[in-house]
Here is the input.
Amino acid sequence: MTANTSLPPASFPVRRMDFSFAQTDKYWFAEDPFMSHFMNNLSSLFPYGEKFFVDSVRAVRDQVTDPQLKKDISAFIGQEAMHSKEHAAYNDYAAEHGIDLERLELRIKVLLEWMTRFSTQKQRLAATCALEHFTATMAEQLLQREDLTTQMNDAKLYQLWMWHAIEENEHKAVAYDVYQATGGGYFTRVLMMAITTLTFFGVIGWFQLHLLRKDGQLFNWRSWKKGLGMLLGLRNGFLSRLLLPYLDYYRPGFHPNDHDTRHLEQDWRQRLGFSD
Ligand SMILES: [Fe+2]
Ligand SMILES: [Fe+2]
Here is the structure.
């Protein structure tokens, strides 16, 4: 009997997906340039961003002794690798419309390689925890906000984003538990969150301007107004509503599972027809 067979099953599955994104409308989100490019912008972060998460967790997995967490690390790596692959396939849609997402992805690759050179293993894992908090809380909003998701007018992209959103919530505690299990403390966790926040929003702002400019939409004020309203509106802005969960991360006893999303995940697994 090998060591693995005595381990418990992972808390969540790895689903094999294989999307194809040909013949998708250019402005597939709300028929709007700003919002479609905002989602394209997020997608461009994933192929190398999620590889960075996997590398950060994989680097310390030998230090983890808890059998359940070991299995969850493997499932986490499986899910994130599949997200990287499918967000790379997203480029087919982009290429069809002359949107050069591959170039943006390569900028992320260079940025993360640079960051890897000047950081410790612990800091990279803390940055992964910070970004996993962003992805989990953004994903939770997608799962909750039919007012937004019904504006995705492409069935394949809708499935991609909702599948990814479910899985980000299923595995939201793994990197954090690994961080704690390998001796990660509060100071590095919140310091890396502060640094990561500045970098994350700096990159998103830069990429958004780039995508709009390349598409000849930089001065489309109507689209800016609509998009900024959807992102930053006081009551229902997609980003505004991240503020409270974001601040919660700075609480000393914070844990990602303090915020229970299991019902939401279950509801969406049924909606997308997943058997597990
Ligand atoms: Fe992911
Ligand atoms: Fe993730």
